[in-house]
Amino acid sequence: MDPFSVLAEKRDMGEIIPLIEIWLTEHDYRVMVLANRLDATRQTTQIRLFFHNYAAGCLIKVYASPEFFDELKQFLAQHGLLQYTIPCAYCERPVQVTQTVCPHCSAPLQLQ
Fold first, then answer.
1. C-alpha Rg value of the chain to the nearest Å
2. CA distance 104 to 112
3. Using one digit for the tens of pLDDT, what is the confidence trace for 49-60?
């Protein structure tokens, strides 16, 4: 399954991970955090999130259902943290988090 991606604007993983951990716990998920990874389970639902810091914020790679991804986006939006672009590491122009090559300078984007 390909991950969904979203950028929590102007925050780092040290701020974002605890917020998401609390939110998931409040929704009856059992949560385990290991470095830049968060695993959550509730009954038969399994979710895995990876966090990567960039100058523009914390990129979150979400391995979960589209429905969960929509809920996560709503949660991030309610906290003013939602953004769908990150700066290219080479030309620093905004690039959609789902792209693998920068449309401005053609540099490969390694967002994994």
1. 14
2. 20
3. 999 998 888 999
pLDDT at 111 over 70: no
List residues bridging with 5 in a β-sheet: 61
* Cβ(93)–Cβ(102) below 8 Å: yes
Selection from 27, 14, 16 nearest residue 80 by Cα: 16
Contact 73, 83 (CB under 8 A): no
Average pLDDT estimate for 24-28: 95
Q: CB neighbours of 32 closer than 8 A, spacing ≥ 6?
A: 38, 39, 40
Amino acid, res. 21: E
pTM of the shown model: 0.73
Phi-psi region of 76 (alpha: psi -120 to 50; beta: other; left: phi over 0): alpha
CB 104 within 8 A of CB 45: no
Please give the pLDDT value at position 112: 41
Give CA–CA dist 73/102, Å, rounded.
Answer: 24
